[in-house]
Structure formats: structure tokens, C-alpha cells
Design goal:
It contains seven helices and no strands. By secondary structure, the protein is mainly α.
Length: 180
């Protein structure tokens, strides 16, 4: 019984540490609130666990089954909290991706858009690209994902790898994008 208690207690501590680490890495207000709520729940569970442990140690025979039930419930709550943390991480990553995509709409994107269109004009067989295609290229450049930008440029222009690479690298040099 004591090893179950120690295992559950260790898992709770790791969830609290994981939540605190996650909180320190992310400053979004909603994530802070959600993680603070999770930390409070974990604190309450830990307190219940200690109270149950104290009762068990004091020798109350009827608390043995209660301790087992508490540990089982704590295990279940721990799994729920872990999945909540994972879901919040996924939502945070989705929000970061969307934020990066929205940054494309800044004033710099008009300059980049013009440079890309000028590069495409060199290739006579190129149709007018759609706004989505241009936004995708700019999005990839903002993320430092120059390989995806080259692929998108090739798709739009139908040019070879070297021509696309040279064009994207020139756009990156002109507008100060870096490779990551």
C-alpha cells in the first residue's frame, strides 16, 4: 500500500512540476489560468492523499479500503489532468501557428508580396498566383521554413529547384528573413 502511495505522490509531483515548467515557458493569459487551475486541483488531491495516508498510518482499519479507493481515484484524476495538459499544449501550438499566420498580414508582407511577384514575373509561363499561395510563401518565410517556401514557389511557378531556391534566397536576403 505504501508503494502505491509513493508512486501516486511521485506522479502528482511530476504533474505539478510539468505544469509549472509549461507555465514558465508560455505567457498566454488563458494558458496561465488553465494551468493554475490544474495546479490547484493537484494541490487539493495531494492534500487529500496526505490526509488519507495519515489516517491509514494511525491504524484505523476501515481506512485501508478508503485509502485504496482514494489512490484509485487519484490515479484516475492524474490521467485526466495529464490529458488536459496535453490538450492545452495542442491548443497552444495551434494558437501559435495561427498567430504566425496572422502576422503575415503586417505591412512588411506587402513589400515581400511585391518582391515575390517580381521574381515570378521573370518566368514567362507563370500564371498569376492566388493570395493564399503568396500568403503560404510569406508564412513559411516568417517561420524560417525556407524549404517549404521553395516548394510552394516551385508549385506556383512550375520552375526547377535551382531557380526556385535562388528566387526564395533573394527574397530572404532583401527582406531579412533567416533560415532556422
Amino acid at each position: 500500500m505504501n508503494s502505491n502511495f509513493n508512486d501516486t505522490h511521485s506522479r502528482l509531483k511530476s504533474i505539478i512540476v510539468e505544469g509549472v515548467d509549461y507555465l514558465s515557458d508560455h505567457s498566454e493569459g488563458s494558458m496561465k489560468i488553465a494551468l493554475a487551475s490544474i495546479a490547484n486541483q493537484l494541490d487539493e488531491i495531494a492534500l487529500e492523499m496526505w490526509n488519507a495516508h495519515d489516517s491509514y498510518v494511525s491504524g484505523a482499519a476501515d481506512n485501508q479500503s478508503s485509502m485504496g479507493d482514494t489512490i484509485a481515484r487519484l490515479d484516475e484524476d492524474t490521467n485526466i489532468l495529464r490529458s488536459t495538459i496535453d490538450r492545452l499544449r495542442d491548443e497552444n501550438n495551434t494558437l501559435k501557428t495561427e498567430l504566425a499566420r496572422l502576422k503575415v498580414v503586417g505591412c512588411k508582407s506587402d513589400d515581400v508580396r511585391g518582391t515575390i511577384l517580381n521574381k515570378m514575373a521573370y518566368f514567362k509561363s507563370v500564371k498569376q498566383p492566388t493570395d493564399v499561395q503568396l500568403d503560404n510563401i510569406i508564412f513559411f518565410l516568417n517561420r524560417g521554413d525556407w524549404i517549404s517556401a521553395i516548394k510552394e514557389f516551385r508549385t506556383v511557378t512550375g520552375t526547377g529547384l535551382k531557380e526556385s531556391k535562388d528566387s526564395i534566397e533573394e527574397v530572404m536576403a532583401i527582406h531579412g528573413f533567416s533560415k532556422r
